[in-house]
Amino acid sequence: MRKNNSKIHLLLPIVLIPLIIMYIWGEDKTFESVVWGIIISTFLMGAGFLSLKISIKRSMKLFLGTMVGGIFLRLVFFIASGIYVLNYSDLPIRSYFISLLGYYLFYQFIEILYFNRGLKKV
Predict the structure, then answer these.
(1) How far, CA to CA in Å, does 80 sit from each of 12, 13, 76, 88?
(2) Of 50, 16, 46, 52, which Cα lies nearest the Cα of 34?
(3) Residue 13 vs residues 1, 86, 94: alpha-carbon distances, Å
(4) DSSP-derived secondary structure letter, 6
(5) Does the predicted TM-score (pTM) go above 0.85?
(6) 3-state secondary structure 9-62
(7) Tens of pLDDT along 56-113?
(8) Is the pLDDT of residue 122 over 70?
(9) Reduced to 3 states, what is the DSSP secondary structure of residue 4?
């Protein structure tokens, strides 16, 4: 039987604790903006993981093209979501950007760890 060394279940409290705190003590719009920041960050992280998983076992040229293209597309989506919140939404801007950047940086850290583990196996 294969042993699963995944420690993803240890990350769940780190992701959920700030959300629970905002739900209990925050205002409704603040909680909504934090949730939207988490959703956008999770979508961007999922796109990064997917591109990494597809390209890690391919040629170096395809891998680098996928990485640079993925970074560019995530940056465009990040900027577009920021412009939308600034101009067309009534969400609190500060809490949205703090949650978006905080979770995005946390997910980037996890993605780098995944990337390093994937390179060791190749």
Answers:
(1) 28, 29, 6, 11
(2) 16
(3) 28, 30, 23
(4) -
(5) no
(6) HHHHHHHHHHHHHHHHHCCHHHHHHHHHHHHHHHHHHHHHHHHHHHHCCCCHHH
(7) 778 888 888 888 888 888 889 888 988 998 899 888 888 888 888 888 888 888 878 7
(8) no
(9) coil
